[in-house]
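To fix ideas, we now present one chain and its tokenised fold:
***
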Amino acid sequence: MKRLFDFFAALGALILLLPLLLLIALAVGLDSGWPPFFIQERVGRRGRLFGICKFRSMTVLKGAEKGRFDAGDARRVTRVGRFLRRTKLDELPQLWNVVRGDMALVGPRPEVPAWVQVYPERWQKVLELRPGITDNAALEFRHEEELLAAEPEPERCYREQILPRKLELYEHYLRNRSFGGDIQLLIKTICRL
């Protein structure tokens, strides 16, 4: 039932939001060139790699698609990208990932392979689930970029503080997930936009 709901809700949202998506793609292209989308390798359900799709909010950097991590470094963020990140509109193309079956609307956020290797025994359980666009960790760490930018050692902060807390929230979701809970998380996410 969850997969059917996710598929039709994401497809409906893509159709409804098509004019906005085209406008954003055009704005990204005019601001910083083409392509307007950024595809990055992430770890999905059962460890399968997939390409997460976002609107590009940074200047193109070779290797970023493989998960290069510049924690807290906002120097490459474009003018349009700042707006997209602040409003979370850069995440809208992930609706296509939901339609394809790579992701769900609600579930643990997918991580790049390098960070999955940091706590592999914990990720093994979490990766039983299809990753999602939103969850409690995404809401709690909505301003993660600013948190990391304020840290003297952002990668260490992510590894030792933020990632363990995210995994705690993912594991809680794994134990307590329900369709009703997912609907509540979607409503909470929409209200915080």
